[in-house]
C-alpha cells in the first residue's frame, strides 16, 4: 500500500509561487492517475489537478493556466507548481493516488495572504 507525504506548503503573498511535492513510499510508475486535491475548513475536498501515467494533465477551471502538475516516476514524486497565487488558493493540499485502499495523508498548508 503506497503512502504519500506532502511538503512544500507555506505562507506566500498574492501573486507569488510555491511548488508542492508528494513523495511516495513505493513506485508510482504503474499508478494510472495521481492527483492533487485541496480542502478549506467547512468545505468538501476538491480536485485541483490530475495527471495520468502517460503525463496527460487535467485541471480545475479555477487553477487552469496558473498551476502545473507533473510526475517523476523515477523519483516516485508528484509535483504541483503553483504560480500567480490568489487568497482563494488558501487551503490544505493533499496528494492522491488512484490505487485500491488509498488513505489520505496529512497534507500541506498553503496560505496566500499579504
Short description:
By secondary structure, this protein is an all-beta fold. Helix content is about 0%, strand content about 50%.
Characterise this structure.
With 114 residues, this protein is mainly beta. Helix content is 0%, strand content 48%. The chain contains no helices and ten strands. It has a six-stranded mixed sheet with strand order 2-10-9-4-5-6, with no helix packed on it. The protein starts with a strand and ends with a strand.
Supply database-style keywords.
114 residues, mainly beta, six-stranded mixed sheet, four-stranded antiparallel sheet, globular
Task: Please summarize the sheet with the most strands.
Answer: 6 strands, mixed
Helix content: under 10%
Note poorly predicted spans: none
What would the average pLDDT be, to the nearest integer? 95
Strand arrangement, major sheet: 2-10-9-4-5-6
Form type: globular
Give the N-to-C terminal Cα separation. 40 Å
Task: Give the structural class.
Answer: mainly beta
Q: What's the Cα radius of gyration?
A: 13 Å
Write the layout of secondary structure elements.
Elements: E1 4-7, E2 10-12, E3 18-24, E4 33-39, E5 46-52, E6 57-59, E7 67-72, E8 77-82, E9 91-97, E10 108-112
Parallel strand pairs: 2-10
Antiparallel strand pairs: 1-3, 3-8, 4-5, 4-9, 5-6, 7-8, 9-10
